[in-house]
Every structure is written in C-alpha cells, then in structure tokens.
Amino acid sequence: MMTTAVRSLGVAVLVLLALGGCASDAEFPPVQPPSTAMHFKATTAGEFPVDVYFATWGKGFVIYSPGAAPLYLVPDSQGGYIIQTPNEGARWVVARPDGSGWNVLSPSAPATFLLKQDDGGYLLQPPGELPTLIQPVRPD
C-alpha cells in the first residue's frame, strides 16, 4: 500500500510543482534531490508521513522519495504533462476544467484526482484508496 501511496504522491507533487517553475538545462537528473528542491510531507491515512522532494530538470521535473525510483514529468505539446516511471506505462496530467486541481490519467485505470485545499495543501485521491494529504514543508 505504501508503494502505491508513494507513487501516487510522486505524481501529485510533480503536478503541483510543474505548474509553477522554470526548468534547468541539466542533461540527467542528479541521483539525490538538489538543495533547491521543494520539500513536501505526504501522509496517507494510518501511515507515517513520507518526505518527497520536487526539482526542476531540463524542460520538466523530477520527484524524489526515499526507497522509490524517481518520477519524471515531461511537458507535452498540449499544455499537460506525461509522467514517465521505470517499469510502468506513461500517464498524463491534465488540469481539471473547474480549476480545482488536476486529473492523472492512465490507459489502464480510472483517473486519480489531485485537489487543491483551502490551506495551501493538496489532497490526492487514487481510485479505491484512502486519500493522501500533501503539505509543503515550510522553513522555520
């Protein structure tokens, strides 16, 4: 369950941050998140919070989380993003028409919803699973 939550969280963080940054010109992403990566905590019901880092890379983005392969977010030609992960098919990220967040689309599963919350956080709702709360870690 945690692997699915971490993967879903990675997708969510990519979506969140991809909408607001400029990418670097690096050819390959670093093995570890750079010091400029944005830090998030993601908590699935009944689980401990997981650290997730989001960084710009080339024309896209990378999500890092301990114990999981990096997730790559590559912009498509229609204003959305393609999520590339090792050993999984491509998924697409598109903005929700009402502006409430994003839909993560897969050819083999129902959409996962990433919804904006009033407090600045996000709620990730994969189909058939409990939601994951995503909060930015703010410097003290």
Layout of helices and strands:
Elements: H1 2-18, E1 38-44, E2 50-57, E3 60-64, E4 71-75, E5 81-84, E6 91-95, E7 101-106, E8 109-116, E9 122-125, E10 132-136
Concise synopsis of the structure shown:
It contains one helix and ten strands, in the order αββββββββββ.
CATH fold description: Glycoprotein, Type 4 Pilin
Average pLDDT level: 78
Envelope shape: globular
Distance between the termini: 32 Å
Keywords:
10 strands; 12% helix; ten-stranded antiparallel barrel; 140 residues; globular
Describe the protein.
The structure is a single chain. With 140 residues, the protein is mainly beta. It has one domain: Glycoprotein, Type 4 Pilin (2-Layer Sandwich), CATH 3.30.700. Helix content is 12%, strand content 41%. A ten-stranded antiparallel β-barrel has the order 1-2-3-4-5-6-7-8-9-10. Strand 4 and strand 5 form a beta hairpin. The N and C termini lie far apart (32 Å).
